[in-house]
């Protein structure tokens, strides 16, 4: 690996966030070789909000912009009003840094127990390409006559040809790079006719440029059923922000649990740094007990490495995780740091 | 059962719709006793649309309004543009007849195979109370600059205190009538903050009138995970139109498949007839082959009987279905009408 320096912002966050991030960084160190990470840690999340009332100061966002890449643990705590950190920190980062692709592999590693009867690792190997910057997540909407019998609360899903095309294009690229070359659009075009029709038309148009990729469509309700009854039908999925949120949590459930689910909030145009994070939350109930599984964060580190062009290092981390998972049944209980140690040892060994 | 006459509208629809409706009516006949159904059949769906271009003529809607109750099979066909029949017929009926409760039991019957490893009938027994007349299903929204690079497509979720309160109230009533008396709100209040906050505030307020009911909240993404990993945590769920659509298909997947999932589009105020239908669609791929499972329709007939105050008859149908399901493994392949015959025989026997 050539000597190279990468500016890495780290947002450990709340609850188990700092614990799992520590293990992610441990593995990153073990795999880095000549690759030098200049790390800056940012104190953001529930603790900072309680202390200062700040969620994401503009100055911090400006600093984040100057980084090459971001690793996030998890933010949130029941003591903070719902939405404060989600909209003000997580979604604001995704929107401001133009993370229009939320990349979420749903892959069952060999040897990992799944909740589904009769399903094996071969049956669950997909990548969900979730739109990250529009749809129902815009925050557009409002409330009228709040607290009265005549209250009206609205939420608007805003979808643009620009936004839909770029995420669909990305999804075709991902599909074209995989052996099965199959792309499924997940939406609800029979009810959300305006947005669904836009997705359908753009998919059809872009598909002409990818004759090697086969395409399919599934309503989101049917898709959740297929995740359980026939996950093998999916290879790459492209979907909107909200449907992607829902089906990737379900995806985690069928692929060994939320402790293994990695994700990347990706700006493919590289006009701002991308952000990698486990799909799970801050899990305050188990925080500080060394019980959290750092695997999702470590797999997110592998995605981070891929994003910065260090594919070999990414593969080594993935392989170490895969080997560790294959033998887990034999290990018995291990603490967060024991899992991190074991995987770090494998990547350096 | 006292002699009584009920006006029943039947909409067989497309694909397997007529086949499963025939079995539903067979069982209804078998259980009716002194109860006389005056049936009127309505020809609606893809076939009519192809023949006449009509989806739901106002005159037909006016006739439906005069009925006591409606039984629907399934409508739809790939040859009809997506949304035409869904918005124009199914959703129009739900909205115009004020079916503000979409009632969907998610119940694993003993002896039925589930897709989940290690889950038994005791673990899956819930009722989803899905809002039916507002939220993201309103059809509010539109498209600007269609077909250009600058296209914008919007969908608006409209939620009112009036609409949210009445469905939450209904859900509390259902919860209060069940042994566990537990109600979970499923939403996404950390992102859809306006609508989610309205649901949360109304839930809290109405909860004061039901001190015997415990309440909980789950984000919709987490809920899909729990459906797979821990369905036993749910008793009654109240949720919006779109989330309800998604989680009830998932619910069908964990409770023995879509062939068993019944539903009622209920107008609890009885200002218009309610409509009962299987959750599944018209399945044109297996239509006309006697392969469709009529069980979902037969269970929908049981819900219909409950709605018109014929609880004893409803229980008899449910018991017949439950007994049939318990012995299914021994039967081998049976046709649609053989299943209907067997269940009809049990209710009359
Ligand atoms: C915390 C929340 C805002 C977030 C989302 O809805 O995107 C989370 O559920 C996720 O999937 O990353
Ligand atoms: C066909 C469609 C409009 C409908 C819905 O989305 O409600 C269906 O999926 C259902 O669940 O009854």
Automatic annotation (TrEMBL), chains A, B:
EC id: 1.1.1.85
Cofactor(s) the protein requires to work: Mn(2+); Mg(2+)
Domain Isopropylmalate dehydrogenase-like: 7-343
PROSITE patterns, A to Z: IDH_IMDH
Domain of life the protein comes from: Bacteria
PANTHER family from the UniProt entry: D-MALATE DEHYDROGENASE [DECARBOXYLATING]
Protein name: 3-isopropylmalate dehydrogenase
């Amino acid at each position: 690996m050539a000597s190279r320096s990468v500016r890495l912002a780290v947002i450990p966050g709340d609850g188990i966030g700092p614990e799992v991030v520590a293990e992610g960084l441990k593995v990153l160190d073990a795999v880095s070789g000549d690759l030098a990470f200049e790390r800056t840690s940012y104190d953001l999340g529930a603790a900072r909000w309680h202390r200062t009332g700040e969620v994401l100061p503009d100055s911090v966002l400006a600093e984040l912009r100057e980084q090459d890449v971001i690793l996030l643990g998890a933010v949130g705590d029941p003591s903070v009003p719902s939405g404060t950190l989600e909209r003000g920190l997580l979604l604001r980062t995704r929107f401001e840094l133009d993370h229009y692709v939320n990349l979420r592999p749903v892959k069952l590693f060999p040897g990992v127990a799944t909740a589904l009867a009769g399903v094996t690792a071969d049956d669950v190997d997909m990548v969900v390409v979730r739109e990250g910057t529009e749809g129902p997540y815009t925050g557009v909407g409002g409330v009228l006559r709040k607290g009265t019998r005549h209250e009206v609360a609205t939420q608007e899903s805003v979808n643009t040809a620009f936004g839909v095309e770029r995420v669909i294009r990305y999804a075709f690229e991902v599909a074209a790079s995989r052996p099965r070359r199959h792309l499924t659009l997940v939406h609800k075009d029979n009810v959300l006719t305006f947005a669904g029709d836009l997705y359908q038309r753009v998919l059809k148009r872009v598909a002409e440029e990818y004759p090697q990729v086969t395409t399919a469509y599934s309503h989101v309700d049917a898709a959740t059923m297929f995740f359980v009854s026939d996950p093998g039908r999916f290879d790459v999925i492209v979907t909107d922000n909200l449907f992607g949120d829902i089906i990737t949590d379900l995806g985690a459930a069928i692929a060994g649990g939320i402790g293994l689910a990695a994700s990347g909030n990706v700006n493919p145009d590289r006009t701002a740094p991308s952000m990698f994070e486990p799909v799970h939350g801050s899990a305050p109930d188990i925080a500080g007990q060394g019980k959290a599984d750092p695997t999702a964060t470590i797999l997110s580190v592998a995605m981070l490495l891929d994003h910065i062009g260090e594919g070999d290092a990414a593969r080594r981390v993935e392989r170490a995780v895969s080997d560790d998972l294959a033998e887990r049944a034999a290990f018995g209980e291990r603490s967060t740091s024991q899992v991190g140690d074991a995987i770090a040892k494998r990547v350096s060994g």
